[in-house]
């Protein structure tokens, strides 16, 4: 058997050539930033969420024995907002300095009753007092915490160079409109923070769908005759 032994200078030259090729490959120019491989367009245009304090002041009339109908309507509308997007406790604060203490107590009690009627549990309400030592009559105050969705800033399309084809990267405006629309449509921005637990799944319904799938049956809900999407003959 014949063995071929390369000379040392030849091996050194071969190694140097391989190193040069590797160096050229690693130093090759590229227009793809690291963020392009690590994030998505939606991550680059994230929706910001800010906490807000919603409050309602209801004046206590010194000459009245009960709340006016307009005040009751304002309280109900405010509490409906708490039911829809409120977080944390509902604060009902009674004024300690009032020209009509009896009405102040009755107003807080009535606001509590309206909240209960809208589905707010008593455990979700908390009582407060304010205005001690105030020289003027203080209003009743209702308050709760909410969240506001702040849409990302979308640069005008006129500022984007659509003719730039140096790379296949996404444009800075990609996904921005989607996030802006979502920020405007979402009911409770607090959901973006994951603060609300998901409702439990319907296991029995899932088993029914799974059995239909295994049997080769349609898993769609059956529609009644009055639910048909066909156009009525009266308009044909």
Share of residues in strands: 15-25%
Count helical runs.
7
Low-confidence stretches at least 5 residues in length (pLDDT < 50)?
Answer: none
Could you give me the name of the CATH homologous superfamily of the domain at 49-149? OmpA-like domain
| Order of helical and strand elements | HHHEHEHEEHH
Structural class: alpha+beta
Q: Order of strands in the sheet with the most strands?
A: 1-4-2-3
Number of strands: 4
Helix content: 25-40%
Please state the second-level CATH architecture of the domain at 49-149: 2-Layer Sandwich
What characterizes the major β-sheet? 4 strands, mixed
Textual characterization of the structure:
This protein has 236 residues and is an alpha+beta fold. It has a domain of 101 residues: 2-Layer Sandwich (60s Ribosomal Protein L30, Chain: A). A four-stranded mixed beta sheet has the order 1-4-2-3. The model has no long low-confidence stretch (mean pLDDT 82).
């Amino acid at each position: 058997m014949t063995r071929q032994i390369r000379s040392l200078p030849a091996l050194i030259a071969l190694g140097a050539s391989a190193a040069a090729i590797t160096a050229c490959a690693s130093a090759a120019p590229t227009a793809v930033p690291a963020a392009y491989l690590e994030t998505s367009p939606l991550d680059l245009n994230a929706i910001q969420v800010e906490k807000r304090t919603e409050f309602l002041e209801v004046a206590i009339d010194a000459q009245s024995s009960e709340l006016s109908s307009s005040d009751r309507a304002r309280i109900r509308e405010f509490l409906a907002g708490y039911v829809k997007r409120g977080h944390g406790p509902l604060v009902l604060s009674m004024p300690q300095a009032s020209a009509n203490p009896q009405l102040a107590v009755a107003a807080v009690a009535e606001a509590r009753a309206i909240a209960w009627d809208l589905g707010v549990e008593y455990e979700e309400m908390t009582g407060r007092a304010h205005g001690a030592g105030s020289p003027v009559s203080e209003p009743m105050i209702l308050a709760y915490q909410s969240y506001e969705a702040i849409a990302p800033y979308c640069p005008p399309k006129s500022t984007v160079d659509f003719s730039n084809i140096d790379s296949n990267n996404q444009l800075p405006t990609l996904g921005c409109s989607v996030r802006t629309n979502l920020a405007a449509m979402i009911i409770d921005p607090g959901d973006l923070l994951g603060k609300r637990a998901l409702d439990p799944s319907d296991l029995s319904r899932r088993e029914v769908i799974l059995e239909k799938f295994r049997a080769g049956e349609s898993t769609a809900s059956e529609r009644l005759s009055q639910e048909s999407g066909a156009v009525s003959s009266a308009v044909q």
